[in-house]
């Protein structure tokens, strides 16, 4: 039976008005502040320019790969609930589209501060996609319990908080974070946990009648896992130095993903009472290695170390799903719907620790002069005679801060705590705003149900009301 229209969750005015306001704001800001970068500006091109030297051909393959992860990978992965497949995929589509548009402005604000304009190119779109990934990871914590209006407001607030945190950490703390372990995975995780902490629903701790999967929804979700798995090397290597750094990033990510996948298949059978595979583990735990190698992905950690990190990340992620997620819901009022704390939080902490160890162990004997390019903050400062020697070996090497390995490691630790604190506080404040009554929050009864916000075909209704139909 179709649900009667509930005025508190009716989108007829709420969603169109919000979208219209956001589009007007973005259009005005784009008109005033956004222009082309040097590689997209026709005034700077001439007949002697080699078109293949345009940055498009260097950056677009990574942009396209991350696009697949954002819209197909995340979208399909979030469609694992039996009666929430429309919402999982479509709300991901809506939120991601807006988040990228908004991130171009928010991440370009500091460029505007210095230059008076935001110069747009493919690399800016790629950076905006990473900000979008932050939003979508956080979205996983409140999946099924929020309206599209709430999700747009969440993205509207999270993107600028992320942009400011990213700018402050990179400008003042200055860290190595090639794979985005600290500034993407940890930020997204603890922001999402902060939001879900405020949006806590006591009645959902005992489960919900529609908080279930089906044969078809699990297949769709594992397709999302495969998209993410295949393109994760691009995600981790996109912003690393071109050449051997990027080469190592691809190798380490693939090896880490491979080892976490093998470990996941072993663990899911061992802990299953019937000794069978569990689809939820295949959908999520197999990806842990991609996060765990992130902080050290471009460093000379060795293939064996990346393999070990994949195993460690997978094990922590698996045990987190099994034991930690229920504990957080019962004891700490944190209902982490998709287990983002396991896949992004626990693995992010392991990855950050591994990155710190790699920094402490880095020597010129292992890296050669390129050590001061990879660990740029350890390069000699301006005026140091050693800088001139290094610049003869590595033309274009920029002056650094002259930090020791120990000093850089401490700054990495500071960045971890700063990022977690900023994201958690930002998430809590955002949660209070999302609790406002006019944002169409679904009731406990209506959670995990497409029918609340979608026009559902009659055949779908028959399936919904007949638990014996797959």
TrEMBL record:
GO terms for molecular function: ammonium channel activity. Residues 27-437 form the Ammonium transporter AmtB-like domain. The chain crosses the membrane at residues 12-36, 60-81, 93-114, 120-144, 151-170, 182-200, 212-232, 252-272, 284-301, 307-324, 345-363, 409-434. GO terms for biological process: ammonium homeostasis. Gene3D superfamilies: Ammonium transporter AmtB like domains. It comes from the Eukaryota. The keyword Protease does not apply. InterPro entries: Ammonium/urea_transptr, NH4_transpt_AmtB-like_dom, RhesusRHD. It is a multi-pass membrane protein. Belongs to the ammonium transporter (TC 2.A.49) family. Rh subfamily. This is Ammonium transporter AmtB-like domain-containing protein. It comes from Myripristis murdjan (pinecone soldierfish).
